[in-house]
Amino acid sequence: MNLLPYQKASEIPAETAGLTHWLVEGLWSDQAVGILGGEPKCCKSFLALDLAVSVAAGVACLRRYPVRHPGPVLLFPAEDALGIVRRRLQGICAAAGVGFESLPLEVITAPVLRLDTEADRRRLAKTIELLRPRLLILDPMIRLHRLDENDASQIAVLLSYLRELQRRFQVAVVLVHHARKDSNGSRPGQALRGSSELHGWGDSNLYMRRRGQRLTLTTEHRAAPSQDDIPLQLTESGAALSLAVATGSADDAPAEASPLERVRQALQQLGEPAPVSRIRQHCGMRMASVCESLAALVRQGIVAQDARGYRLDPPKAA
After folding, report:
1. What CATH number has the domain spanning 259-317?
2. Is the distance from CB of 285 to CB of 262 less than 8 angstroms?
3. Residues whose CB falls within 8 Å of the CB of residue 5, separated by 6 or more in sequence, listed in order
């Protein structure tokens, strides 16, 4: 009978027990798989590129978090033109004070990479075997497959393949993924779009959020303490853009208006009765959130409804 290998717990070498080995201290553990998540337009790709430059060059990510195990990086940027990716990487290199030309960062230039197909899985594995990167970044997940993201059984197959790559080649894997729109009321991991398998899969996860003018980063690790609401800012030097940790506290910035307040403000700016579709367009929220907010405002007597749509109730608007 072939048995699985096993070992008495007390005989496990002490140096491997209870320690977190970091790739980027505080942000990403060594050889970890995980999600870099956030709503659209919250600088996820900028953070992914900052991680790429930092690991490849061995310099602190965001000029704050030391890289403990630098090495080559392999990047697949599926949504941005290669010229834009180059320009952003050059800007980050300038901010970090490293040379762009000598950076050991390889960019997959294939127009399509489908990790739900056996052919592309083999191509990626062979590329990793040749280049032996320390870090693999895939941005974003939605461009890597045609699976149903809400079907746990389908997503589990994709995630298992990425875990297999991590174990086979000792490579850290960052999978950039979208969060649901208007998800600031949820815990970061629960706000990810699709199956909960995504949240549970990660050894290290990073979540970007934009609340009004605030841009924040939350970290989450399987075997280390997490950090909440690290304030970030997009800095500009000439034509170069890069992310950096903001000098002030995230609490110093004004809080984002609540969904109810955003709907009320939209009605005030419209100045006339409006249907739900127009209100939604004006305040940029999900339809379900707009309807829930309108119902609450009607119950509170702040908003009235008639045949033309919803409007602020004049006696209550003052």
Report:
1. 1.10.10.10
2. yes
3. none
